[in-house]
Amino acid sequence: MAHSEKRYKSEIRRNSYTCRTYHSSGRQLCTRHAANEDALKKIVLDNIKRHAEFIALDEKRIAAELYKKLVGDISLDKADIQKQLRELKQTLHNLDVKLEQFYEDKITGVISAETFTMLASKTEAERNEVSEKISLLEKGVSETKARLSDIQNWIALIKANAAVDDVDRALVEALIERVEVSESAVENGVKTQEIRIMYKFVGVV
Fold this sequence. Notes:
3-stranded antiparallel beta sheet
């Protein structure tokens, strides 16, 4: 990866944030870039307040956008998901019944052992496919519930901290996973430095 594409986890050093990679490994792996602590605090506070304003204006839209970011385009229609699960489980039951019938037909001589083996193998393959679909759907439901909980937790924390005026340890531990600071660069004569706030529950938003 090119040096300019790296992201840097930072830590406090004498009222500034310095690159952790540089601090631990030296300039062989990174440069000694840093950011002022007060400036970072202001950026974090401004970011929290901006999100709080958006949530106050349209919380449902913010939640929907986060859902799409974290989950994708998976349907939220619980009735549709439950219908799919019912149909798949009924199909699985029907296949189990077919397998039992094939076994009885073999025992009674209605079908040969060779025919039983062929039919049972085909039905078992169908059964495995349906079982996999059920497992994936149920896993998706579980993961979706977890992501919805994450979204609601993040929104609640942003709302609870909308009026904070300082970034203290309690705020960081509750809401922020880490702050990433890139090396500063000069563009068109202006010094720039990318700051990425990684929130708990939802990541970068």
